[in-house]
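User: Can you predict the 3D structure for this chain?
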Amino acid sequence: VQLVESGGGLAQPGGSLRLSCAASGFTFSSYVMSWARQAPGKGLEWVGGISTDGSFTNYADSVKGRFAISRDNAKNTLYLQMNSLKPDDTALYYCAQGGRTLAGARGQGTQVTVSS
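Assistant: Here is the predicted structure, written as C-alpha cells:
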C-alpha cells in the first residue's frame, strides 16, 4: 500500500489549497478513504471521509462547510479542497484508508501552513 500526498504549502487566512493523494498497491475503488491532520503538539484528528463511489461524504465539525473531499477512482486519486482557511488549519495532512477510526494505512503527509 502506498499513499502519497501533495499540494500542501503556505496559504493566507481566507485562502484555498487543494491537496491530492495518489494511491497504489491496493484496489482504491473498494476502500472508504479519509483525510486526517495533526497540528503541532496535538493528536491525530479525522477531517472527513468519502464512500467508495464518492456519493457520500462526511466531515468533522471543525471543517464542515469549508472543506470538500472528492475522489477519482479511474486515477486512484483522493482530493481535499480547502477553502476559507484559518490559522487553526495549520497541520500535517494525511490521506488514509478507511473511515474515522483511522486504523488503516496512511501516507507520509503534506504540510499546510496558514499564516499572514
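The first strand starts at residue 2 and ends at 6. Residues 32 and 98 are 5 Å apart (CA to CA).
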